[in-house]
From TrEMBL:
Name of the molecule in the record: Methylated-DNA--protein-cysteine methyltransferase
Principal EC category: transferase
InterPro entries per record: MethylDNA_cys_MeTrfase_AS, MethylDNA_cys_MeTrfase_DNA-bd, MethylDNA_cys_MeTrfase_DNAb, MethylG_MeTrfase_N, MGMT, MGMT_N_sf, WH-like_DNA-bd_sf
Domain of life: Bacteria
Organism: Clostridium cibarium
Amino acid sequence: MRNIFYCDTKIGKIGIEENGEAITKVYLVNKDLQDDIGEKTETILLKKAVKELNEYFEGKRSSFDLPLEPGGTEFQKKVWEALIEIPCGETRSYGEIAKVIGNEKAARAVGMANNKNPIMIIIPCHRVIGANGSLVGYAGGLNIKEKLLELEKNCMNR
């Protein structure tokens, strides 16, 4: 069964979904759609996810301790695992992630996997930037990416 909970955050309303065992999605909510998707139930796992996300937005948490089960290809999952290893407050380029996963010519494919990340923030695709240091490509919009990176500037002090 799919359970969904919505919460307001510094970047807007987000939806958190779980399948009874793991978080499967975290996304910005399109106000027009929020009433049409899934069971709205606050389970123990969703409560924990909301708590950890609130701590993140308050600057009290730099990593997450939640079971994750993002749906995707093996390649995408490999990229998302590499993203989780990027420390809070740091960034990597698409090319650097491609090297980490053992396919240094796959920078574009890494970008596409980033774009398909179903668990924003917790799988920190916002920490991936262009080779020249520019903010590029974020499904939530570059303004949200910028806000998340700004929020994380003090991670080193936590």
